[in-house]
Design goal:
Length: 151
């Protein structure tokens, strides 16, 4: 019997959501020499005049990647929990966990480093693959518990 590692992907997904936030803070710190912990949500805009355009743009993309990670986290956590509650096969759960973690890792990297439209399209494909895997897992859980049989 395989070991079910899938629920470890829930905190793993949360960690991946915070990596771009930490990266944004490090970009601001490197560019300005300081962080504003009194008003951290406004520090990037406040630091804009002391940053190069490239650093500012990369920090904005990191901020957006973090926001997207926080937005997709509950969808994926729900999908994994539903899959486990529906007693889906362990290999299925582990595969979907690996797909989502892999796409989120690549999504973050591509989003932060992106400066061209073709790379932006790749980012969108990675987002779609990750969210699509979560939706697929939800449908499989529904099917396994007597819902509409789609898979």
């Amino acid at each position: 019997m395989s070991v079910n590692y899938s629920l470890y992907a829930v905190p793993g997904t949360l960690v991946l959501a915070y990596v771009p936030h930490l990266l944004k803070s490090s970009i601001v710190l490197k560019a300005t020499g300081t962080l504003d912990n009194v008003n951290p949500r406004k520090q990037l805009e406040a630091a804009r005049g002391r940053m190069t355009a490239s650093s500012y743009d990369r920090a904005k993309r990191a901020e957006a990647a973090h926001a997207n990670g926080m937005e997709t986290f509950p969808v994926y956590a729900a999908a994994l929990i539903l899959g486990n509650l529906a007693h889906l096969p362990v290999d299925t759960l582990n595969t979907y966990a690996a797909i989502f973690l892999g796409t989120r890792f690549l999504y973050n990297f591509v989003y932060v480093m992106n400066t061209t439209r073709p790379v932006a399209a790749l980012r969108s494909l990675l987002w779609g693959a990750g969210v699509g895997s979560a939706i697929s897992l939800m449908f499989q859980a529904a099917s396994a518990t007597g819902g509409l049989k789609l898979f």
